[in-house]
Structures are given as structure tokens and as C-alpha cells.
Design a protein that fits this description.
alpha+beta, CBS-domain, 4 strands, elongated
């Protein structure tokens, strides 16, 4: 199974791209994460190019280290810049392996230099489980027929 299948099956994963700018505050980012019930936001520049990702973990790190009110910090001060990226043609298995190895929970999907979606480790695990269950059902049907 490929990442593009997850993006196609979950239109919300690619249809509406929620992102944030580097000059936004962490308060604004936290409000967006909470309102959308998501765990990370792609950070884009004024041209819409992906320059980082801000996760709940990034915000917690700043909260633990900040001398002043951490929610007044800018996204650019907390975001992760060294990104692990996927393309829609990557397999779910390879993406899961990279995410597990790097200990990350969100993976931006970029095709031809453009951000087309973001997948979470939960999305990938669910896809794997669904595929395994479908295979098990097919084997049961084959055996009983």
C-alpha cells in the first residue's frame, strides 16, 4: 500500500491543508491544534513552501525551557527544521519504518516540491491493520468456498 492511497481514502488528509507561518505565536498554533484535533502543523513561508513542522512535542519542549511566557514565542523558535519527508509513492511500510526509527509521529507528504498532505503514525498503522484484516477475510472466504 502506498501513502497516496491513505491520502485518497481520507480526503481530509489532503483536501484542506492546514498550516501555519513561522511568525505566528505558539498560542495561535496551540489553539489551531486544539480546534482541529491534530498533533502537528506544517510551517510554510509566504510562498507556501514547506520550511518546518510544529508538533505538540515542540511546544512542550519550549514550555519546559522558556524563561518567559512560552506561548508568546514564535513558531520559528520551536519548529523542527530538519524534516523527514515522504512522497505519495512511498510505501506505508517504509514510512512506518522511518517514523519509528526517527521517533516522529507526523510525516509531511511532498510531491514535486509541493506539500500535498501529512500522515500520522496512527494513519499508517490503521492502514496496515485494515490491509491485514482484508487479507484475513479473503483467506477465510477462499478456505470456506
Amino acid at each position: 500500500m502506498l501513502i497516496k492511497h491513505i491520502l485518497e481514502n481520507h480526503k481530509a488528509k489532503g483536501a484542506i491543508m492546514i498550516s501555519i507561518t513561522p511568525d505566528a505565536t505558539l498560542r495561535s498554533a496551540a489553539e489551531t491544534l486544539n480546534a482541529r484535533k491534530i498533533g502537528a502543523l506544517p510551517v510554510v513561508d509566504t510562498n507556501g513552501a514547506l520550511i518546518g513542522i510544529l508538533s505538540e512535542r515542540d511546544i512542550v519542549r519550549i514550555c519546559a525551557l522558556a524563561a518567559n511566557n512560552p506561548l508568546d514565542y514564535k513558531v520559528q523558535e520551536a519548529m523542527t527544521r530538519n524534516l523527514e519527508l515522504a512522497t505519495s509513492e512511498n510505501s506505508v511500510e517504509s514510512a512506518l519504518a522511518r517514523m519509528t526509527d526517527r521517533r516522529i509521529r507526523h510525516l509531511p507528504v511532498v510531491d514535486s516540491g509541493h506539500l500535498v498532505g501529512i500522515v500520522s503514525i496512527g494513519d499508517l498503522v490503521k492502514a496496515q491493520i485494515d490491509m491485514i484484516l482484508a487479507e484475513a477475510d479473503a483467506i477465510k472466504t477462499y478456505i470456506t468456498s
